[in-house]
Amino acid sequence: MRHLMILMLILFSPIWGETVNSDDGRPSCSRCDLHLCCNCSYNGFTSIPVVTDQALILNLSFNNISMVTQDDLTGHVRLRVLDLHGNRLAAIHPTAFDSLWSLEELDLSDNLLTVLNHRWFSKLEILLQLNLLNNPYSTLGSPPLFLGLVRLRRLMFGGPDLKELRKEDLSGVTNLDELTVHGSNLARYDSGTFGNIWPLGSVILSLYGPLLTQPMMAAALLDDVCNPETQITLLDIHLKESFSIQPFKESIRRIRNLSVHNLLISDEATVSLMALIDGVPLRSLSIVGLTLTGEGRWETTNWTDLRSMDEFSVSDVTILDVLKFAMTVELKFLFQYQKKISFINSKMFLLSCYLTKLMVNTQYLDVSDNLLTDLTLSYMVCDDVETLQKLRVLNISGNPLKSLSALSHLATKLTRLTHLEVSRTGYSSMPPSCSWPSTLRYLNISRAKLTTTTPCLPKSLQVLDLSYNELKEFVLVLPFLRELHLSGNKFLRLPPGGSYPNLQTLTIQSNTLNIFGLSDLQSYRRLENLEAGYNKFVCSCEFVTFLRSQLVGSGDIKIKDGKHSYVCDSPLYLQGVAVGQVNLSIIQCQPVLFVSVSCGVALFLGMLLSVLLWRCHTFWYLKMTWAWLKAKRESQQRRRQRNMEGSEPLLSYDAFVSYSERDASWVENFLVPEMEEQSDTDSVNPTAPLTLCLHKRDFLPGHWIMDNIMTAIERSRRAVFVLSENFVQSDWCRYELDFSHFWLFEAGGDAAILILLEPLSKDAIPKRFCKLRKLMSSTTYLEWPQEEDRRPEFWRSLRNALKRDDEQEN
Ligand SMILES: *[C@@H]1O[C@H](CO)[C@@H](O)[C@H](O)[C@H]1NC(C)=O
Ligand SMILES: *[C@@H]1O[C@H](CO)[C@@H](O)[C@H](O)[C@H]1NC(C)=O
Ligand SMILES: *[C@@H]1O[C@H](CO)[C@@H](O)[C@H](O)[C@H]1NC(C)=O
Ligand SMILES: *[C@@H]1O[C@H](CO)[C@@H](O)[C@H](O)[C@H]1NC(C)=O
Ligand SMILES: *[C@@H]1O[C@H](CO)[C@@H](O)[C@H](O)[C@H]1NC(C)=O
Ligand SMILES: *[C@@H]1O[C@H](CO)[C@@H](O)[C@H](O)[C@H]1NC(C)=O
Ligand SMILES: *[C@@H]1O[C@H](CO)[C@@H](O)[C@H](O)[C@H]1NC(C)=O
Ligand SMILES: *[C@@H]1O[C@H](CO)[C@@H](O)[C@H](O)[C@H]1NC(C)=O
């Protein structure tokens, strides 16, 4: 029953979708990564979820947490970062953070805290960064909040509701890297509140209201933070009349580095401001978001002394009354001293020679993201007067430029130029040749529309960026080039390295490279860093093997862009697989080797088998068995036929003579004459001639030799074997012998007669002729005598042996 209740409780829990901790109904969050960084933001939590005690970073931003109770964070002794930005926190228990001994960063910004309590921070002794921005508290409260935070380096507080800053509010804060105060509605500032913080690296102030309505108070505040070492950033300033400048009157002399974000200024205020900064040691002035409400009537400012100012940068300029705006003042005062000048994104369509010839000290000029065209840009250099002779860096990116030859024409006049950046322009082609200042080292034409490159590019370049164009190849010789950037083009191959003997860095990501190999890389003699990911790699074995070895850093070249960016595009079954993950088998990788090795092995085995079979005379045995079977069958057939006809076996020869061709002369000269002719030598007992069957003479032409042999043997009463070395060598004889042996066996008589033409020891006969060997031991054989007088004796014996049975009986 209890279980059912718990189940119901879980099922109908209002915080559906979160895991519910069974202890006290708190949700839990387990989205922690390997580094124990738990990202629980955007999860709809309404209270602090249960998270592992081991967490180092706990991000609870953008939830709907309304309070932090006493126990919510107990046990998180390892937590370093706690982010509660963007919740609906209205209450935090005084001891809620007490167990967070390791906390270095706490973000409570964008919540609903109306009161701040010093007890929250009393145990956070090593806190480095605290963000209390944009909560509806009107004071920091007392006792002083930050008293115990001796290691605090970055502090952000304030918001639209902050009304008061009292002298003791910042006690305990002694030095800061960064202080951010939003006091747009600040009504009270006790002079000296920020005065004890030193050093102070950077101050970001939003003092919109005070600057307009309480200049004395704002001045006091600025006075406290403005030091030569401190970088001052002012947000949202509206300077309408001359007296709005008053707050800066004292402090401006102590500022070296001033940055203003979102400045709205009238002509009157501009003139006053110029008067104010006349002769001050301000080194750097940067304005991001400048809105000019006047008509440019700054005549009286022409004597302003800005000789201390090295850098002047303005971006995102808006002129409200652009039709009436006409800068009538001679701007020499503004430009003659600066080393660095930037006019970025300011809708500037003309940079006239009149202006640039004032820039006698300018080394760096950035006019990116304006409306300069080839024509209006050409006015940048005067024809008669030397202009911009100290310029080293020129950035005209993001202007609607089209002609690279116009640019080159312009650049030649800038004799010290080393860096030229013309990204995001409309260059689509290159003239065949161009001239450039000999000093040019760095050229950036990325994100243009170039389709080809020509020797227009200067040989002196050390860094060349042609990323994100439409190039297919790059074959220029640039002997001094150290960095080449070709990402985002349409390269199929790496450019030939021989043309860039000094190249150290090559980036060629996001092209259509299929493959590259060691030889490609080796052609670059000095290459150290390569980025070639996000290409359409064909994962051949060669490539995979090569790249893997490169990725683990076995070569001299570092692959900078990480394994994950090298992904196979083909073959299809490997598409999307990281090259490091590909496993290819040997069959895929070495097909030629594989086939040749397997063929070789097969051939070797075949040969081995053949040798083995040959050694065992298997072929001979097979041939013999086959012939034997065939002969047996056929002879049986014939016999059956004869039996049916009732006739006697047809014997037409007395003997079949089996001999080797090489012994034919003996057979023809001795045997045949002696046997087949009427013998007169022995007149006492004249013998009838015998008929012999000789294959040479008696075989029917046209019949198969096997058949001939078989019929011959069948039709002969006896078989005479003329044995000699020659006989043993000849296969046919062997066959005949074999067959006859079978026949003998069948016939059951001693039908075989062996004649030894030469002494032939039994051992000289190969072992496989076991039948012949057997025959030689079982049957008496006749030896052909070499002595002439013993021959009649031999013939007699032979004749006896060949005698017909009936004759013998007689
Ligand atoms: C944390 O998670 C949220 C929601 O899933 C996601 O939108 C956000 O980008 C993540 N933040 C970080 C820093 O990873
Ligand atoms: C927080 O709650 C409000 C209403 O109570 C809701 O509109 C909002 O979407 C919630 N925010 C999140 C991140 O869940
Ligand atoms: C917490 O998450 C938000 C949104 O995901 C992110 O903007 C913020 O930087 C993260 N905070 C920290 C400390 O990482
Ligand atoms: C001014 O401060 C900005 C931001 O801290 C810094 O980048 C810049 O180098 C500083 N300029 C000078 C001249 O000190
Ligand atoms: C400023 O301009 C006035 C007239 O407009 C001129 O008389 C005066 O010499 C100029 N001063 C300087 C320093 O250029
Ligand atoms: C303009 O080019 C220079 C030199 O390359 C560079 O330092 C600067 O950041 C560029 N400016 C912009 C706005 O990209
Ligand atoms: C070239 O310019 C682009 C865009 O302005 C920039 O992102 C890139 O880093 C520059 N290249 C080099 C090598 O500085
Ligand atoms: C290749 O093998 C490795 C380890 O043996 C494995 O992690 C990986 O998933 C395999 N890759 C593919 C595409 O099967």
Automatic annotation (TrEMBL):
<dbReference type="GO" id="GO:0005886">
    <property type="term" value="C:plasma membrane"/>
</dbReference>
<keyword id="KW-0677">Repeat</keyword>
<keyword id="KW-0395">Inflammatory response</keyword>
<comment type="similarity">
    <text>Belongs to the Toll-like receptor family.</text>
</comment>
<dbReference type="GO" id="GO:0045087">
    <property type="term" value="P:innate immune response"/>
</dbReference>
<keyword id="KW-0812">Transmembrane</keyword>
<keyword id="KW-0325">Glycoprotein</keyword>
<dbReference type="InterPro" id="IPR003591">
    <property type="entry name" value="Leu-rich_rpt_typical-subtyp"/>
</dbReference>
<dbReference type="InterPro" id="IPR017241">
    <property type="entry name" value="Toll-like_receptor"/>
</dbReference>
<dbReference type="GO" id="GO:0002224">
    <property type="term" value="P:toll-like receptor signaling pathway"/>
</dbReference>
<protein>
    <recommendedName>
        <fullName>Toll-like receptor 2</fullName>
    </recommendedName>
</protein>
<keyword id="KW-0675">Receptor</keyword>
<dbReference type="GO" id="GO:0042497">
    <property type="term" value="F:triacyl lipopeptide binding"/>
</dbReference>
<feature type="domain" description="TIR">
    <location>
        <begin position="651"/>
        <end position="802"/>
    </location>
</feature>
<keyword id="KW-0433">Leucine-rich repeat</keyword>
<feature type="signal peptide">
    <location>
        <begin position="1"/>
        <end position="17"/>
    </location>
</feature>
<dbReference type="Pfam" id="PF13855">
    <property type="entry name" value="LRR_8"/>
</dbReference>
<comment type="function">
    <text>Cooperates with LY96 to mediate the innate immune response to bacterial lipoproteins and other microbial cell wall components. Cooperates with TLR1 or TLR6 to mediate the innate immune response to bacterial lipoproteins or lipopeptides. Acts via MYD88 and TRAF6, leading to NF-kappa-B activation, cytokine secretion and the inflammatory response.</text>
</comment>
<keyword id="KW-0391">Immunity</keyword>
<dbReference type="InterPro" id="IPR000157">
    <property type="entry name" value="TIR_dom"/>
</dbReference>
<feature type="transmembrane region" description="Helical">
    <location>
        <begin position="592"/>
        <end position="614"/>
    </location>
</feature>
<dbReference type="GO" id="GO:0004888">
    <property type="term" value="F:transmembrane signaling receptor activity"/>
</dbReference>
<dbReference type="InterPro" id="IPR035897">
    <property type="entry name" value="Toll_tir_struct_dom_sf"/>
</dbReference>
<keyword id="KW-1133">Transmembrane helix</keyword>
<keyword id="KW-0732">Signal</keyword>
<dbReference type="GO" id="GO:0043235">
    <property type="term" value="C:receptor complex"/>
</dbReference>
<dbReference type="Pfam" id="PF01582">
    <property type="entry name" value="TIR"/>
</dbReference>
<dbReference type="InterPro" id="IPR032675">
    <property type="entry name" value="LRR_dom_sf"/>
</dbReference>
<dbReference type="GO" id="GO:0006954">
    <property type="term" value="P:inflammatory response"/>
</dbReference>
<feature type="disulfide bond">
    <location>
        <begin position="434"/>
        <end position="456"/>
    </location>
</feature>
<keyword id="KW-1015">Disulfide bond</keyword>
<keyword id="KW-0472">Membrane</keyword>
<feature type="disulfide bond">
    <location>
        <begin position="32"/>
        <end position="38"/>
    </location>
</feature>
<dbReference type="InterPro" id="IPR001611">
    <property type="entry name" value="Leu-rich_rpt"/>
</dbReference>
<keyword id="KW-0399">Innate immunity</keyword>
<feature type="disulfide bond">
    <location>
        <begin position="353"/>
        <end position="382"/>
    </location>
</feature>
